[in-house]
Structures are given as C-alpha cells and as structure tokens.
Design a protein that fits this description.
Elements (H helix, E strand, L loop, with lengths): L9 H8 L6 H8 L3 H19 L8 E5 L27 H13 L4 E5 L10 H12 L4 E4 L2 H11 L3 H11 L3 E2 L9 H7 L6 H13 L3 E2 L11
Parallel strand pairs: 1-2, 2-3, 4-5
Helix pairs in contact: 1-3, 4-5, 5-7, 6-7, 6-9, 7-9
C-alpha cells in the first residue's frame, strides 16, 4: 500500500498501520499532503476504519431539542441566539421538552440531543432537573446532552464544582456529553470568533472530568472562518 508514497510520509503512515500514536509533527505533515500521499492517507484511514468496525455501518435515530435560544454570549458565527429582551427569544417548559422527547421516542428515536443557549437567569440545577424529568418519563431513551459550555455554566450558576456537577448529571440519567462549543481549540482563534466563550483549558477540564467519571463524549470542530 505504501510503496508509492513519498519518503517523508511513508514512515508516518506505517506507524499508524502498526497501531502507534502520531507525534504532533507527524500530524502536521499529514495536513499538507497532496496527490498520491493524499490518496494513501485516505486508504490508511479506511483500513483503520475496517479494523475497528468492519463493514457494518450504523446510525442513531435522534431528535435535537433546543429548549431556549436566549443566550448571554455573542459568538460571531451564531445565527441562533437571541438576547433575552428580543421578541423572538423563547424558553420551553420542562413539560414541553419531555413531550418532544416522548414524541421522538414514539416515532422510533432512541436518543435525544439537548442543547441550548445560556439564559442570564438560568437556575443552576436546571440541567440536572431536566435530565431527571426526561429519564423519569422515558427511562430507556439515551440522553446525549449539554455542551461543556453548558456544564460550566451550570457549575457556576449552582456553585457546584465541575466534577460534582457532572456526577449529579450522570446520576440523573445523562448518557453522553456532546463535545460542542469546541469550535477550534486554539485560544487565539477563539478570541476572534467567540470572545468570552468557554476557554480551551475550561473545555478540556470538563471533557477530561467527564471521561474520568465514565461519561463518554464527542468532540466537534468548526472550520470555514478566520483560517480560510
């Protein structure tokens, strides 16, 4: 597979196929590959996918519920949020969120994803109470909910340390945590596109604490802004 790859890239891809971790310089080198090297990178990625999951593709039937669009942050890329004084702002009652989750379940969904803005007067325990209400009504529904930014906000508003807050969320029935609000984990860029939002170090603290507690997470990346 690697006979026709350049001498610079060949050993990097060979290490990957051997199951070894990439060094930062290796990863940087791979971001600039073109031509045959790019084709080889795609083939290696496909081989790793095959080793991990075989030829079976799966999917989850999911409903996304945004319980409010009111937010104290002013990210430059966001067209969703509204100030609490704006007429278009809304905040769904817990009963309505549960109703939408039940509706999704009745239509075949096995998971709901719950995220929203950061309202200025949010009760610090709201995320915990909402989680408990959904799981009480739908105990078999997987709850993929609350970004690291929301966890941090709930922690601050409730006065609970992040670890304790996540522990309570897990006890209430939280399944997994969406690793959104990551955008780009480079503070200099974040200060341009989302000044005042959760910092890189804070995001990492929430995610690593979640992992330590056995809460699995995703991680997102956003591109097409100041890097283009």
């Amino acid at each position: 597979m690697l006979d026709w790859v350049s001498r610079e890239i060949r050993p990097i891809l060979a290490r990957v196929l051997d199951g070894r971790e990439l060094a930062p310089d290796d990863a940087t080198a791979l971001t600039g590959v073109t031509g045959r090297d790019l084709h080889a990178l795609a083939l290696v990625a496909d081989e790793l996918r095959r080793r991990q999951v075989g030829e079976v593709a799966t999917f989850v039937v999911n409903r996304n519920v945004n319980f409010t669009n009111v937010c104290i942050k002013h990210c430059t890329f966001c067209a969703f949020s509204r100030d609490h004084r704006e007429e278009e702002g809304y905040f769904l009652p817990v009963a309505e969120v549960v109703r939408r989750a039940r509706e999704a379940w009745d239509l075949g969904a096995t998971e709901v994803c719950i995220q929203a803005g950061l309202p200025p007067k949010l009760d610090g325990r709201y995320y915990i109470d909402l989680t408990r209400a959904i799981k009480a009504a739908l105990p078999d529904l997987h709850l993929h909910a609350f970004s690291p930014e929301e966890v941090l906000y709930g922690s601050v508003r409730s006065g609970l340390p992040i670890r304790e807050y996540l522990t309570e969320l897990k006890a209430a029935g939280l399944g997994t945590l969406p690793g959104t609000s990551a955008e780009i984990l480079d503070q200099e860029i974040r200060d341009v596109i989302a000044r005042g939002r959760i910092t890189v170090s804070q995001w990492l603290e929430v995610i690593t604490t979640a992992h330590a507690l056995g809460i699995r997470t995703t991680s997102t990346i956003m591109y097409g802004h100041v890097e283009t």
